[in-house]
Protein backbone atom coordinates (compact mmCIF):
# COMPACT_ATOMS: atom_id res chain seq x y z
CA UNK A 1 0.00 0.00 0.00
CA UNK A 2 1.18 3.51 -0.84
CA UNK A 3 0.76 5.91 2.04
CA UNK A 4 -0.73 9.25 1.05
CA UNK A 5 -0.54 12.54 2.84
CA UNK A 6 -1.66 16.09 2.36
CA UNK A 7 1.34 18.10 1.13
CA UNK A 8 2.57 20.85 3.40
CA UNK A 9 2.96 24.43 2.11
CA UNK A 10 6.72 24.26 2.68
CA UNK A 11 6.82 21.37 0.18
CA UNK A 12 4.60 23.06 -2.39
CA UNK A 13 6.21 26.48 -2.33
CA UNK A 14 9.43 25.54 -4.20
CA UNK A 15 7.32 24.03 -7.00
CA UNK A 16 5.29 27.17 -7.64
CA UNK A 17 6.94 29.35 -10.24
CA UNK A 18 4.64 32.10 -11.40
CA UNK A 19 6.07 33.99 -14.36
CA UNK A 20 5.14 37.65 -14.66
CA UNK A 21 2.65 38.15 -17.48
CA UNK A 22 3.99 39.52 -20.76
CA UNK A 23 1.82 42.53 -21.46
CA UNK A 24 3.17 43.18 -24.93
CA UNK A 25 1.27 40.91 -27.34
CA UNK A 26 4.19 40.60 -29.76
CA UNK A 27 6.56 39.53 -27.01
CA UNK A 28 3.93 37.11 -25.74
CA UNK A 29 3.58 35.50 -29.18
CA UNK A 30 7.30 35.28 -29.83
CA UNK A 31 8.03 33.80 -26.42
CA UNK A 32 6.19 30.68 -27.63
CA UNK A 33 8.43 30.33 -30.70
CA UNK A 34 11.32 27.94 -30.11
CA UNK A 35 11.89 26.83 -33.71
CA UNK A 36 11.40 28.27 -37.18
CA UNK A 37 8.43 25.91 -37.48
CA UNK A 38 6.87 27.66 -34.47
CA UNK A 39 7.35 31.03 -36.18
CA UNK A 40 5.72 29.62 -39.30
CA UNK A 41 2.68 28.56 -37.28
CA UNK A 42 2.35 32.04 -35.77
CA UNK A 43 2.86 33.68 -39.17
CA UNK A 44 0.08 31.58 -40.66
CA UNK A 45 -2.32 32.86 -38.00
CA UNK A 46 -1.21 36.47 -38.29
CA UNK A 47 -1.30 37.09 -42.05
CA UNK A 48 -3.90 36.75 -44.82
CA UNK A 49 -3.79 33.44 -46.63
CA UNK A 50 -2.58 34.90 -49.94
CA UNK A 51 0.34 36.65 -48.23
CA UNK A 52 1.33 33.59 -46.19
CA UNK A 53 1.06 31.34 -49.24
CA UNK A 54 3.23 33.69 -51.30
CA UNK A 55 6.04 33.15 -48.78
CA UNK A 56 5.36 29.53 -47.95
CA UNK A 57 4.55 28.18 -51.41
CA UNK A 58 6.55 27.03 -54.41
CA UNK A 59 6.00 26.26 -58.08
CA UNK A 60 3.55 23.78 -59.60
CA UNK A 61 3.37 20.63 -57.44
CA UNK A 62 6.03 22.06 -55.07
CA UNK A 63 8.16 18.96 -55.60
CA UNK A 64 11.45 20.92 -55.64
CA UNK A 65 10.80 22.40 -52.22
CA UNK A 66 9.70 19.09 -50.69
CA UNK A 67 12.80 17.35 -52.09
CA UNK A 68 15.07 20.02 -50.62
CA UNK A 69 13.55 19.68 -47.17
CA UNK A 70 13.52 15.90 -47.38
CA UNK A 71 17.23 15.89 -48.26
CA UNK A 72 18.12 18.02 -45.26
CA UNK A 73 15.94 15.81 -43.07
CA UNK A 74 17.82 12.78 -44.43
CA UNK A 75 21.22 14.02 -43.25
CA UNK A 76 22.88 11.70 -40.77
CA UNK A 77 25.33 13.35 -38.38
CA UNK A 78 28.42 11.54 -37.05
CA UNK A 79 29.51 13.20 -33.81
CA UNK A 80 32.83 12.98 -32.06
CA UNK A 81 32.75 12.89 -28.26
CA UNK A 82 35.09 13.75 -25.40
CA UNK A 83 35.94 17.07 -27.04
CA UNK A 84 36.16 20.35 -25.15
CA UNK A 85 33.25 22.36 -26.58
CA UNK A 86 32.83 24.76 -23.68
CA UNK A 87 33.12 27.49 -26.30
CA UNK A 88 32.45 27.31 -30.03
CA UNK A 89 33.23 29.72 -32.85
CA UNK A 90 30.29 30.15 -35.25
CA UNK A 91 31.98 32.82 -37.36
CA UNK A 92 32.84 32.42 -41.02
CA UNK A 93 34.52 34.57 -43.65
CA UNK A 94 32.00 35.50 -46.34
CA UNK A 95 33.44 37.29 -49.37
CA UNK A 96 36.62 37.79 -47.40
CA UNK A 97 34.95 39.61 -44.50
CA UNK A 98 33.98 38.18 -41.10
CA UNK A 99 30.40 37.10 -40.49
CA UNK A 100 29.17 36.05 -37.04
CA UNK A 101 27.37 33.08 -38.62
CA UNK A 102 27.80 31.20 -41.92
CA UNK A 103 24.53 32.79 -42.98
CA UNK A 104 23.25 35.69 -45.06
CA UNK A 105 19.67 36.94 -45.10
CA UNK A 106 18.49 36.35 -48.65
CA UNK A 107 16.86 39.00 -50.85
CA UNK A 108 13.09 38.64 -50.97
CA UNK A 109 10.58 40.63 -52.99
CA UNK A 110 7.62 42.62 -51.64
CA UNK A 111 8.90 42.36 -48.06
CA UNK A 112 6.57 45.07 -46.73
CA UNK A 113 3.66 42.91 -47.87
CA UNK A 114 4.63 40.34 -45.23
CA UNK A 115 4.90 43.01 -42.54
CA UNK A 116 4.74 46.78 -42.81
CA UNK A 117 8.18 47.15 -41.16
CA UNK A 118 9.70 45.56 -44.26
CA UNK A 119 13.29 45.52 -45.46
CA UNK A 120 14.69 48.11 -42.99
CA UNK A 121 13.63 45.90 -40.08
CA UNK A 122 15.43 42.90 -41.58
CA UNK A 123 18.54 44.92 -42.37
CA UNK A 124 18.72 46.15 -38.77
CA UNK A 125 18.50 42.57 -37.55
CA UNK A 126 21.37 41.62 -39.88
CA UNK A 127 23.38 44.60 -38.65
CA UNK A 128 22.97 43.56 -35.00
CA UNK A 129 23.66 39.91 -35.81
CA UNK A 130 26.82 40.72 -37.79
CA UNK A 131 25.69 38.94 -40.97
CA UNK A 132 25.04 40.16 -44.55
CA UNK A 133 21.63 41.14 -45.90
CA UNK A 134 20.54 41.22 -49.55
CA UNK A 135 18.08 43.80 -50.88
CA UNK A 136 16.01 42.65 -53.85
CA UNK A 137 15.35 44.55 -57.06
CA UNK A 138 11.72 43.70 -56.23
CA UNK A 139 12.06 45.26 -52.79
CA UNK A 140 9.70 47.81 -51.30
CA UNK A 141 12.52 49.98 -49.92
CA UNK A 142 14.98 51.91 -52.08
CA UNK A 143 18.70 51.20 -52.03
CA UNK A 144 19.28 54.63 -50.49
CA UNK A 145 16.63 54.31 -47.77
CA UNK A 146 17.87 50.89 -46.76
CA UNK A 147 21.44 52.15 -46.54
CA UNK A 148 20.26 54.92 -44.22
CA UNK A 149 18.19 52.53 -42.09
CA UNK A 150 21.12 50.18 -41.38
CA UNK A 151 24.33 52.09 -42.08
CA UNK A 152 26.56 49.51 -40.38
CA UNK A 153 25.10 46.44 -42.05
CA UNK A 154 26.84 44.43 -44.75
CA UNK A 155 24.47 45.15 -47.62
CA UNK A 156 24.27 43.31 -50.93
CA UNK A 157 22.09 44.32 -53.86
CA UNK A 158 20.30 41.58 -55.78
CA UNK A 159 19.75 42.39 -59.45
CA UNK A 160 17.20 41.08 -61.92
CA UNK A 161 18.28 42.20 -65.38
CA UNK A 162 15.42 43.99 -67.09
CA UNK A 163 14.68 44.26 -70.77
CA UNK A 164 15.66 47.90 -70.36
CA UNK A 165 19.40 47.51 -69.75
CA UNK A 166 19.87 51.19 -69.03
CA UNK A 167 17.50 50.85 -66.06
CA UNK A 168 19.51 47.90 -64.78
CA UNK A 169 22.73 49.85 -65.16
CA UNK A 170 21.18 52.71 -63.19
CA UNK A 171 20.27 50.39 -60.31
CA UNK A 172 23.83 49.08 -60.23
CA UNK A 173 25.15 52.64 -60.14
CA UNK A 174 22.83 53.58 -57.27
CA UNK A 175 23.84 50.52 -55.26
CA UNK A 176 27.52 51.33 -55.76
CA UNK A 177 27.06 54.96 -54.73
CA UNK A 178 25.05 53.91 -51.65
CA UNK A 179 27.95 51.76 -50.47
CA UNK A 180 26.62 48.27 -51.09
CA UNK A 181 29.31 45.65 -50.65
CA UNK A 182 28.35 43.11 -53.29
CA UNK A 183 26.18 42.68 -56.36
CA UNK A 184 24.10 39.51 -56.66
CA UNK A 185 22.78 38.59 -60.12
CA UNK A 186 19.85 36.16 -60.17
CA UNK A 187 19.84 34.00 -63.30
CA UNK A 188 16.99 31.48 -62.96
CA UNK A 189 14.05 33.69 -63.94
CA UNK A 190 13.86 33.57 -67.73
CA UNK A 191 10.09 33.32 -67.19
CA UNK A 192 8.00 33.21 -64.05
CA UNK A 193 7.47 29.88 -62.38
CA UNK A 194 3.90 28.64 -62.07
CA UNK A 195 3.23 29.42 -58.41
CA UNK A 196 -0.16 27.81 -58.13
CA UNK A 197 -1.00 29.03 -54.65
CA UNK A 198 -0.70 32.61 -55.91
CA UNK A 199 -2.84 31.78 -58.94
CA UNK A 200 -5.58 30.20 -56.84
CA UNK A 201 -5.48 33.00 -54.27
CA UNK A 202 -5.62 35.68 -56.97
CA UNK A 203 -2.64 37.46 -55.43
CA UNK A 204 -1.82 40.85 -56.90
CA UNK A 205 0.82 43.40 -55.89
CA UNK A 206 -0.40 45.29 -53.95
CA UNK A 207 -3.20 43.03 -52.66
CA UNK A 208 -6.56 44.01 -54.12
CA UNK A 209 -9.67 44.67 -52.09
CA UNK A 210 -12.10 42.01 -53.29
CA UNK A 211 -14.90 40.18 -51.49
CA UNK A 212 -12.45 37.37 -50.79
CA UNK A 213 -9.70 39.57 -49.37
CA UNK A 214 -12.18 41.65 -47.36
CA UNK A 215 -13.52 38.46 -45.78
CA UNK A 216 -9.96 37.34 -45.05
CA UNK A 217 -9.23 40.78 -43.66
CA UNK A 218 -11.89 40.27 -41.02
CA UNK A 219 -9.76 37.41 -39.71
CA UNK A 220 -6.51 39.42 -39.88
CA UNK A 221 -7.48 43.01 -39.01
CA UNK A 222 -4.06 44.02 -37.67
CA UNK A 223 -2.34 43.16 -40.95
CA UNK A 224 -4.85 45.17 -42.99
CA UNK A 225 -4.76 48.12 -40.60
CA UNK A 226 -0.97 48.24 -40.85
CA UNK A 227 -1.14 47.98 -44.65
CA UNK A 228 -3.71 50.74 -45.04
CA UNK A 229 -2.31 53.19 -42.46
CA UNK A 230 1.37 53.12 -43.45
CA UNK A 231 2.98 54.34 -46.65
CA UNK A 232 1.58 52.72 -49.79
CA UNK A 233 2.93 49.28 -50.64
CA UNK A 234 4.85 49.71 -53.88
CA UNK A 235 8.10 48.77 -55.51
CA UNK A 236 11.04 51.02 -54.77
CA UNK A 237 12.96 50.43 -58.00
CA UNK A 238 10.23 51.08 -60.58
CA UNK A 239 6.74 52.47 -61.03
CA UNK A 240 3.66 51.00 -59.44
CA UNK A 241 2.45 47.67 -60.80
CA UNK A 242 -1.16 46.49 -60.82
CA UNK A 243 -1.15 42.78 -61.54
CA UNK A 244 0.16 39.37 -60.56
CA UNK A 245 3.74 38.49 -59.74
CA UNK A 246 4.03 36.25 -62.81
CA UNK A 247 2.74 38.99 -65.12
CA UNK A 248 5.29 41.40 -63.69
CA UNK A 249 8.21 39.00 -64.14
CA UNK A 250 7.25 38.08 -67.68
CA UNK A 251 6.80 41.73 -68.62
CA UNK A 252 10.01 43.16 -67.16
CA UNK A 253 12.65 40.42 -66.83
CA UNK A 254 14.88 39.76 -69.83
CA UNK A 255 14.75 36.15 -71.08
CA UNK A 256 17.78 36.81 -73.32
CA UNK A 257 20.08 37.01 -70.25
CA UNK A 258 23.33 35.19 -71.06
CA UNK A 259 26.93 34.67 -69.96
CA UNK A 260 27.75 37.91 -71.79
CA UNK A 261 25.76 39.76 -69.13
CA UNK A 262 27.98 38.31 -66.43
CA UNK A 263 30.94 39.83 -68.25
CA UNK A 264 29.06 43.12 -68.63
CA UNK A 265 28.34 43.31 -64.92
CA UNK A 266 31.92 42.36 -64.07
CA UNK A 267 33.04 45.37 -66.13
CA UNK A 268 30.70 47.89 -64.46
CA UNK A 269 30.75 46.60 -60.85
CA UNK A 270 33.94 47.02 -58.83
CA UNK A 271 33.04 44.92 -55.80
CA UNK A 272 32.34 41.23 -55.24
CA UNK A 273 30.01 39.68 -57.82
CA UNK A 274 27.72 36.81 -56.82
CA UNK A 275 25.70 34.72 -59.27
CA UNK A 276 22.52 33.23 -57.80
CA UNK A 277 20.41 30.43 -59.23
CA UNK A 278 23.07 28.05 -60.54
CA UNK A 279 21.92 24.44 -60.78
CA UNK A 280 24.76 22.53 -62.40
CA UNK A 281 28.52 22.32 -62.05
CA UNK A 282 29.34 23.45 -65.60
CA UNK A 283 27.46 26.74 -65.25
CA UNK A 284 29.05 27.39 -61.87
CA UNK A 285 32.52 26.83 -63.30
CA UNK A 286 31.79 29.09 -66.27
CA UNK A 287 30.64 32.11 -64.25
CA UNK A 288 33.68 31.83 -62.00
CA UNK A 289 35.86 31.89 -65.12
CA UNK A 290 34.05 35.09 -66.15
CA UNK A 291 34.93 36.80 -62.89
CA UNK A 292 32.26 35.87 -60.35
CA UNK A 293 33.56 35.78 -56.79
CA UNK A 294 30.84 33.47 -55.48
CA UNK A 295 28.03 31.27 -56.70
CA UNK A 296 24.75 30.54 -54.98
CA UNK A 297 23.40 27.06 -55.57
CA UNK A 298 19.69 27.76 -55.55
CA UNK A 299 16.51 26.69 -57.26
CA UNK A 300 14.80 29.88 -56.09
CA UNK A 301 13.32 28.16 -53.07
CA UNK A 302 11.49 25.78 -55.40
CA UNK A 303 9.57 28.73 -56.82
CA UNK A 304 10.72 28.55 -60.46
CA UNK A 305 11.38 25.17 -62.10
CA UNK A 306 9.62 22.33 -60.34
CA UNK A 307 11.57 19.06 -60.04
CA UNK A 308 14.79 21.07 -60.18
CA UNK A 309 18.02 19.66 -58.74
CA UNK A 310 18.38 19.43 -54.97
CA UNK A 311 21.15 21.81 -53.97
CA UNK A 312 22.58 19.78 -51.11
CA UNK A 313 23.05 16.81 -53.45
CA UNK A 314 24.54 19.03 -56.16
CA UNK A 315 26.99 20.70 -53.78
CA UNK A 316 29.91 18.19 -53.92
CA UNK A 317 29.96 18.22 -57.73
CA UNK A 318 30.13 22.01 -57.81
CA UNK A 319 32.87 22.04 -55.19
CA UNK A 320 34.89 19.62 -57.32
CA UNK A 321 34.30 21.80 -60.40
CA UNK A 322 35.33 25.18 -59.01
CA UNK A 323 37.71 24.18 -56.23
CA UNK A 324 38.93 27.26 -54.39
CA UNK A 325 38.34 29.65 -57.31
CA UNK A 326 35.14 30.99 -55.77
CA UNK A 327 32.90 30.72 -52.73
CA UNK A 328 29.89 28.44 -52.76
CA UNK A 329 26.74 29.57 -51.01
CA UNK A 330 23.62 27.45 -50.76
CA UNK A 331 19.94 28.10 -50.25
CA UNK A 332 16.52 26.41 -50.59
CA UNK A 333 15.02 24.30 -47.83
CA UNK A 334 17.08 25.64 -44.91
CA UNK A 335 14.88 25.94 -41.83
CA UNK A 336 17.21 25.18 -38.92
CA UNK A 337 20.70 25.70 -37.63
CA UNK A 338 21.31 21.99 -38.08
CA UNK A 339 20.58 22.44 -41.81
CA UNK A 340 23.20 25.18 -41.93
CA UNK A 341 25.82 23.05 -40.17
CA UNK A 342 25.04 20.15 -42.52
CA UNK A 343 25.51 22.36 -45.59
CA UNK A 344 28.87 23.63 -44.32
CA UNK A 345 29.98 20.09 -43.54
CA UNK A 346 29.02 19.01 -47.06
CA UNK A 347 31.17 21.74 -48.61
CA UNK A 348 29.27 25.05 -48.61
CA UNK A 349 31.13 28.15 -47.50
CA UNK A 350 27.89 29.69 -46.24
CA UNK A 351 24.11 29.60 -46.64
CA UNK A 352 21.27 31.99 -47.33
CA UNK A 353 17.90 31.89 -45.58
CA UNK A 354 14.73 33.59 -46.79
CA UNK A 355 11.54 31.90 -45.62
CA UNK A 356 13.01 31.42 -42.12
CA UNK A 357 13.29 35.13 -41.37
CA UNK A 358 10.11 35.99 -43.31
CA UNK A 359 8.12 33.71 -41.00
CA UNK A 360 9.60 35.70 -38.12
CA UNK A 361 8.81 39.01 -39.79
CA UNK A 362 5.19 37.96 -40.32
CA UNK A 363 4.97 36.70 -36.75
CA UNK A 364 6.28 39.84 -35.10
CA UNK A 365 7.93 42.41 -37.34
CA UNK A 366 11.54 43.28 -36.54
CA UNK A 367 11.39 41.42 -33.25
CA UNK A 368 10.13 38.35 -35.06
CA UNK A 369 12.95 38.49 -37.60
CA UNK A 370 15.39 38.87 -34.71
CA UNK A 371 13.82 35.84 -33.06
CA UNK A 372 14.38 33.81 -36.24
CA UNK A 373 18.09 34.70 -36.34
CA UNK A 374 18.45 34.00 -32.61
CA UNK A 375 16.87 30.58 -33.08
CA UNK A 376 19.23 29.74 -35.95
CA UNK A 377 22.26 30.91 -33.96
CA UNK A 378 21.27 28.79 -30.95
CA UNK A 379 20.74 25.75 -33.17
CA UNK A 380 24.09 26.20 -34.94
CA UNK A 381 25.90 26.42 -31.61
CA UNK A 382 24.08 23.43 -30.14
CA UNK A 383 24.66 21.27 -33.22
CA UNK A 384 28.37 22.12 -33.23
CA UNK A 385 28.71 21.19 -29.57
CA UNK A 386 26.85 17.92 -30.03
CA UNK A 387 29.06 17.12 -33.05
CA UNK A 388 32.16 17.81 -30.97
CA UNK A 389 33.54 20.68 -33.07
CA UNK A 390 34.73 24.03 -31.75
CA UNK A 391 34.97 25.76 -35.13
CA UNK A 392 33.09 25.53 -38.40
CA UNK A 393 36.44 25.02 -40.09
CA UNK A 394 36.67 21.58 -38.47
CA UNK A 395 33.60 20.36 -40.34
CA UNK A 396 33.84 18.09 -43.37
CA UNK A 397 31.69 15.41 -44.93
CA UNK A 398 32.79 12.85 -42.35
CA UNK A 399 30.44 14.65 -39.92
CA UNK A 400 27.36 14.65 -42.18
CA UNK A 401 26.33 12.06 -44.77
CA UNK A 402 23.33 11.91 -47.05
CA UNK A 403 20.91 9.04 -46.87
CA UNK A 404 21.21 6.79 -49.95
What ranges have pLDDT less than 50 throughout 5 or more consecutive residues? none
Rg measurement, Å: 22 Å
| Terminal-residue CA separation | 55 Å
Helix content: 40-55%
Shape: globular
SSE topology sketch:
Layout: H1 9-12, H2 25-30, H3 36-46, H4 49-56, H5 63-73, E1 76-77, E2 92-94, E3 97-99, E4 103-105, H6 111-114, H7 118-129, E5 133-136, H8 143-149, E6 155-159, H9 165-177, E7 182-186, H10 196-201, H11 211-219, H12 221-229, H13 245-252, H14 259-268, E8 273-278, H15 281-289, E9 294-297, H16 311-322, E10 327-330, H17 337-345, E11 350-353, H18 355-387, E12 400-401
Parallel strand pairs: 4-11, 5-6, 6-7, 7-8, 8-9, 9-10, 10-11
Antiparallel strand pairs: 1-12, 2-3
Describe the structure.
The protein is α/β, with parallel strands linked by helices. 45% of the residues lie in helices and 11% in strands. It has 18 helices and twelve strands. The chain has helices at residues 9-12, 25-30, 36-46, 49-56, 63-73, 111-114, 118-129, 143-149, 165-177, 196-201, 211-219, 221-229, 245-252, 259-268, 281-289, 311-322, 337-345, 355-387, and strands spanning 76-77, 92-94, 97-99, 103-105, 133-136, 155-159, 182-186, 273-278, 294-297, 327-330, 350-353, 400-401. It has an eight-stranded parallel sheet. Helix 17 (337-345) links the parallel strand 10 (327-330) and strand 11 (350-353). Helix 3 runs antiparallel to helix 18 (355-387), helix 7 (118-129) packs parallel to helix 18 (355-387) and helix 15 packs across helix 16 (311-322). It is globular, with a radius of gyration of 22 Å. The model has no long low-confidence stretch (mean pLDDT 92).
